[in-house]
Amino acid sequence: MTNAPPPPTTAAQSARTILTRLHEVMASRTNAQGKLNQVVGIIGECLNSEVCSIYLLRGGSLELFATRGLKQEAVHVTRLALGEGLVGMIAEQIETLNLDEAAAHPDFSYRPETGEELFHSFAGVPIIRRERAVGVLCVQHSDPRRYEEIEIETLQTVAMVLSELIANADLVDTAARIDAAEADQSAQRLSGQKLVNGMGAGIAVFHQPRITIEHTVADDIEAERHRVYAAFDKMREQIDRMASQAEFGIGGEHEEVLETYKMFAYDEGWSRRINEAIDSGLTAEAAIERVQQRTRMRMRQIDDPLLRDRMHDLEDLSNRLIRIVSGQMGTAAQMGLRQDSILIARNLGPAELLEYDRRRLKGVVLEEGSLTAHVIIVARAMGVPVIGRVRDVRTSIREGDLLLLDAAAGTVQVRPTAAMLDAFEAKLEISQKRRADLAALRDLPAVTRDGVTIELMINAGLREDIAALDLTGARGIGLFRTEFQFLVSATLPQRERQQRLYRDVLDAAGDRPVIFRTVDIGGDKALPYMNVDENALEENPAMGWRALRLALEREGLLKVQARALMEAAAGRTLNVMFPMVSEPWEYEAARNLFVGQRAWLASRGKKLPAAIRYGAMLEVPGLAETLDLLLPHLDFLSIGTNDLTQFLFAADRAHPRLAERYDWLSPTVMRFIARVVKTVDGSKVALGVCGEMGGRPLEAMALLGAGIERLSITPAGVGPVKAMIRSLDLGALRTDMPAMLARPAADPRGQYRAWAESNGVDLGD
């Protein structure tokens, strides 16, 4: 963190003005209700907003506590349940809303007693305490307009101060509800998502004590700034020391992850944002928390898992920084694990996980987390089972509770009964035998019972992912995501750096094929070092200016990657795949660009690939309508089931209400894939599927039945899918498949499972 403070921004000046006045209100002897009444007046006046209202969580619902602009008779009368109306949605999802026409929003709930029909625009932010929403601060205006970013940032800063005020006044019921939950002594079963497979038993240990910020308004801004400078220096020393001491015995992708994590610790953009928050009048702790809250909200809006995981690293560093600056440095790792333990955390960074004694750490339970998170890569290298997305672990689990973690089932048993413990131990014994059986399949071919060979490949994105080829016995890499290098870099990776990565991957793969997908950035995978037109912000980034669309516009980016790939593959076969092709001309334009760069390198005497094979990803359903035009120009085609599914159903796969609604095995998806297989059949184009769908035995079986014979999947899926393949009579399945597609059952998943069970297919259940 540089020692020259930046000049205060307009947002900081605006927030500081409000905080100065709020500080006077908080110091006054007025009662809590009187203070809230003054607060809404100050905010409304400073933001020139006709309405400012504060809703607080009490009695399980959000109660209107104070307002300027709405009818006063609605105060302590109007109530909204969590998730009800715009205010309820903000509190439930801990999200910010900014609308020019509130009534047009599908979650709008009109309350006649408030008189709010006079107002059109609406902006609201959650009031957060102990990582939970305890209220909502909102403003409204009669004219339809979106509030400026400066105004939203000011509201978020004020919400932090309000959190301190309402906590001191004991106005909300969060603490009572938490205490009641913690008093529960009964056995519980919590569910989450499998992140690293395995089973483990141990006592619950919380990674770090909950740090509650008690003072938000700074008395001396320069003193607060210097506290943050010192904390940054100490944090960076810790990260450097841990990264240098991490030992795994052999190289792995975790090493690159740690280097990336270290880079984030030195990121100037992050430290600048904290400085700006201090300029607004916040204490050092509150400034870090303010930036951290904004990061959390951004994480919830990001669809791309790799970019979301970058934000997780910043979240972890924020936790570390706030503990340093507050003087509350103790973590479970520093105190030491005394017995077999299951670690509990909202989230973890890779370096923090490395601090734990691997002999005692039997598992990790996260409130957040995702399959591609950096900490998960490190946990996999350590052999520690992990489940994530387990809600309310802090209110359901107490320090010292006995926990039984079953990552395969995505469950953790809390305070288990004797019967639960017996069942867990029996399943653990079976699981250990299953792992041994799958390991024995590594060197056996993926051949069905009736002699059909299936090409099993893996998806990768880091240099050391290649180690999974030997561990799984996969035939190659069917999808190497080149954008990961761009996402974790502070600057655009130069050609030499890209070339070095691609060459290392090819060297490690040996004679096994590697299919490089050209960079898929843009949309929600925004890069901080690429200029973005702020007037072209996208409401649907997954369907926006990204992937091949962006690359064809920024030819320099694609040209550099083309040269790097060709020089890395000198003397070898290069497989290149273009993402998100919507029409044949886009593929032709990208292919012609590569052809041009090949000629350019040849004219300068560079050594070239022995051959270049070109392919496309079928993710946009519309491309299927012009496949007959595209096939003569393709060497291979890969169906990307992740994006394809959300485009087919017009459903954001990251939306919590839609994530489980649409099934990969629905006739919509399966008929589409079967139609693509029929179109490609008879051509010389190799057809495959890449994505999560192919990594699950039941879904993989259905894909094979539809005619697919090449799968590129997550490395963890290779063993179970190979076991399924070797138990499958593919001819029998393909005989019955047309009838299942023509007359699908109401429960297609159950239909496929019933077929598998009656035909002796090993689904690993």
TrEMBL record:
What compartments host this protein?
Cytoplasm
Keyword Nucleus among record annotations:
no
PROSITE patterns attached here?
PEP_ENZYMES_2
Q: Which UniProt keywords apply?
A: Cytoplasm, Kinase, Magnesium, Metal-binding, Phosphotransferase system, Sugar transport, Transferase, Transport
- Which cofactors does the annotated protein need, by name? Mg(2+)
* Pfam families linked to this entry: GAF, PEP-utilisers_N, PEP-utilizers, PEP-utilizers_C
Q: Under the cellular component aspect of Gene Ontology, which terms does the record hold?
A: cytoplasm
Catalytic reaction(s) noted: L-histidyl-[protein] + phosphoenolpyruvate = N(pros)-phospho-L-histidyl-[protein] + pyruvate
* Record EC number: 2.7.3.9
Q: What are the recorded Gene Ontology BP terms?
A: phosphoenolpyruvate-dependent sugar phosphotransferase system
Q: Which Gene3D superfamilies match?
A: 3.30.450.40, Phosphoenolpyruvate-binding domains, Phosphohistidine domain, PtsI, HPr-binding domain
Tell me its family.
Answer: Belongs to the PEP-utilizing enzyme family.
User: What protein is this chain from?
Assistant: phosphoenolpyruvate--protein phosphotransferase
What organism does the UniProt record list as the source?
A: Sphingopyxis panaciterrulae
